[in-house]
Description:
By secondary structure, the protein is of the alpha+beta class. The chain has 2 domains: about 10-210, no CATH class; about 215-225 and about 230-290. It contains 10 helices and 7 strands. It has a 7-stranded antiparallel sheet with strand order 6-5-4-1-3-2-7, sandwiched between helices. Helix 9 packs antiparallel against helix 10. The longest helix is centred in the C-terminal third of the chain and has 26 residues, at about 265-290.
Amino acid sequence: xxxxxxxxxxxxxxxxxxxxxxxxxxxxxxxxxxxxxxxxxxxxxxxxxxxxxxxxxxxxxxxxxxxxxxxxxxxxxxxxxxxxxxxxxxxxxxxxxxxxxxxxxxxxxxxxxxxxxxxxxxxxxxxxxxxxxxxxxxxxxxxxxxxxxxxxxxxxxxxxxxxxxxxxxxxxxxxxxxxxxxxxxxxxxxxxxxxxxxxxxxxxxxxxxxxxxxxxxxxxxxxxxxxxxxxxxxxxxxxxxxxxxxxxxxxxxxxxxxxxxxxxxxxxxxxxxxxxxxxxxxxxxxxxxxxx
Length: 292
């Protein structure tokens, strides 16, 4: 990865302490949401590359929410926070918009914010609301999302201070309250504390819900680059900029893939695979367009 840009970090350095899977009951009660700062039409294309079944719902002005239909944290070695961090990173490195992963189980709740190739930032609260993250994470979170450096940061920093009257769910709701100022509006029933099954059922009955399914690499990549080429980022999928970006994705994906294999991390392996695939596809697409 480039030394003059912030690199993708390991889960240990993301600002959110990761622990192994808890008791079976804790894992079964886990829930997760992926909040994307982009319209559903754009998110749908990128989310296909995760190769996971998800439900996509509009979540206010300029926001979308992805609700996982599966629960890989039940069957793998990774807890819900690591799975969601991998997914958020994979989406963010392949797009121009930030992705906020919200996750919780009976023991802890937290978030991870991924934005491009920059270091992820996260925070964790124990079930009783005890903060176990770093204050700097909240300030970085605000800066990445373009929040008010005074009022919004004050509200976020309050979530990182002890408060015996606020449990983990209340802390997460406080975080979402700050984001409503950016246009985020989650549908009723899609919120922290709900188990994955409940989230899935609520998402299915929302107006305009979309089911994101894997359609194969050829169709998914063609749809993604076709959509981007028609938009303001068109120069980034063809010409010199496209080659630089694609080469950077491959360069970032290779060491990340090695790291994910050594750690047996499915979520980070997905991020690495997406980087490598998009980089290779970008180089191939640029060459194909040059021939036209």
